[in-house]
Amino acid sequence: KMMASSFRDCKAWRAGGLPLSTSSNEACKLYDAILTQFVKWRNDETLGGFEGCISALQEADPNFVMGHVISTGLELVSTTSSTRLNERLASAVRRTVELANSQDISPREKLHVKAMELFSRGHFPKACDVWEDILVDHPTDMLALKFAHDAYFYMGAQTQMRDSVARVLPHWKPHMPLFSYLNGLYSFGLLETRLYDQAEKVAMEGLALTPDDAWAVHSVAHVYEMKAEVDKGLKFMESREKDWQVSDVLASHNYWHWALYFIEKGQYEAALQIYDSQVGLHREFASFLNGISVRCWVLVTQPHTDDHVTLFNDMHFLMASLGAKESGTSQRLLEGLQELAKEPGDNQQHQLAGTIGVPMCQAIMEYDQGNYNRSVELLYPLRYRVVEIGGSDAQRDIFNQLLIHAAMKSENKCLLVERDAMRPSSPLTERLMQRALALHN
């Protein structure tokens, strides 16, 4: 069936300076539809969602290289599957490369294929270099911008994530499709480089244009989290819930942010209520170290134990399997990571596994076994490198807290003071201080 006319056909993509090598208008529109859902974090049911559009795209033009790039690329950046273990995914990457080599496609499209292939091998830094090469000549190529944004996030490359968007901003004009979503992307980079006021301002400007931009909402949620402006955060998430909850891909993560404010306030029941009603099996709740019984189902992590796509995922899987008392799974995860660290090749995450990934996993396991001194010994020297496992400051705070708890139980106070200096007036820090005093007086 023909796509809604709002999406760009062959001529429209050409006019925008981003020609696509296919003669099918339908394929062009479906590519646009998939890209739009990616930017909005949203399965649009009226279009058949991501899956419906991807299979329609295959049908419209099975040899359309950029169609393969976007559909296989999306599966890769979701980090839910590894080409090492998933033969279907690995062959989809090979098929894309073969198609690209057998057709006369544009230099930009060739670079897209190259970047996707590099990313599939875990060569994140090099993939980003190639996406940036595309953006130098084609600053309005949203796919290159979004893929780079996600990959920088997985590398904890905060400044790059910010500047990647800053560089292209002047080239975008308000009439261009998806223009307003640049605010959310830029805001997130500002936030992760601690420019909180500017991050909030930029995100709010985006929300004024597009109230349901869930990534901009997410950015504001982070600002209030990092500044420990808890009541502001609660009010913000609640007042805009109707806008952002339609973004099904990001909604449970935004609910996690909402729950974090309750945790900061010590209102664990309220946090768990959000968890039980909204988040269900969402893996980030594995990170509830805060004296709440960890609600973990191993079925979330079990199928992914051997993937090792990102260290960030691995550590969350590990917390979940420990919380569920699955010592076999935990052990296997650690050993798999140790194995990959021996011969990492180009895989950036596996290169870090030896120096950061493995010791951090060991520290989590030592903590779980009550060996707090050993846990501190492993974590303390890494505390300024934790950023390299990727994710956001808010997500990595779990490791600050882990180190603080381990240190408190092993007689080391200076870390609490350090956290207090970074987040003045955090109620959570205040409670930890009280507890530390009680433990040792």
TrEMBL record:
The keyword Repeat applies. InterPro entries: TPR-like_helical_dom_sf (IPR011990), TTC38 (IPR033891). The keyword Repeat applies. Keywords: Repeat, TPR repeat. PANTHER family: TETRATRICOPEPTIDE REPEAT PROTEIN 38. Belongs to the TTC38 family. This is Tetratricopeptide repeat protein 38. The gene is ttc38.
